[in-house]
Amino acid sequence: MELEPELTVPITQPLTVAVLGGGTMATAVATVVARGGGRVRVWARNPTQAGWVVEDVVDGAPQSVGQVTAAASLREAVKAAQVVVPAVPWGPALAQVVNPVLDLLDGKVVVDVGNPYEMTALGPKLAMVVPGGSAAALLAEALPAGAAQLHCFTQVRADKLNRPVPGDEIVLPYVIDGEDAAPKVLKPFLDLVEATGWLPTRIGGLDQSALIEEGGPWAAARGEAGQGLLTRPEAMERGLLS
Hints:
Blueprint: E1 16-20, H1 24-35, E2 39-43, H2 47-60, E3 68-70, H3 74-79, E4 83-86, H4 92-98, E5 109-112, E6 117-120, E7 123-126, H5 136-142, E8 148-151, E9 170-177, H6 183-194, E10 198-204, H7 217-220, E11 222-223, E12 226-227, H8 232-237
Parallel strand pairs: 1-2, 1-4, 2-3, 4-5, 5-8, 9-10
Antiparallel strand pairs: 6-7, 8-9, 11-12
Helix pairs in contact: 1-2
């Protein structure tokens, strides 16, 4: 009989999520987690930015005072968490954050929020060439076999992640690989997200990642709640769900 991998951090309530980054996506995802009742450990290269994220999250989720804190180091943040969210730009920046903590990721869920944007002189734009066919492929290549990769929050802009409210049931399409690596972590995290008004809905494995990324049909679709924000009936009407 195959045994479940031993978790590096015991599962406790609430779930502890490490959010790595100091920008708008880091703030948005951390706010979702805080609204859902999770603990958040924020790390950014610039400690001042990490502090700003903490302040903004508490402003958006006042009930989370004391549950959202800045971590002193990258490894401290990751080691203390069951879920890790590298909320940094796709490409070299992602590798620079993930590679130093690969040895800490076994038994954890890594939430991949990346879209295939590249920096140009005029600012970010969708990459013309995406190795592996999707942004998710970059992280998949790096992660250890003992980590689960959950790809989501990619069909909407960061400033829309906290638009759903409990009862809205806005579909959050996700794809996943390695779910058997962290079976005791995945469901509590999805339950936490669902508590904020999202309806997590699996649409396949990582080979379907491009469907939910910028440039794909989920990001292009517009529901009554806004761009990329669809209820299940709206998604079915558009042929995105059956």
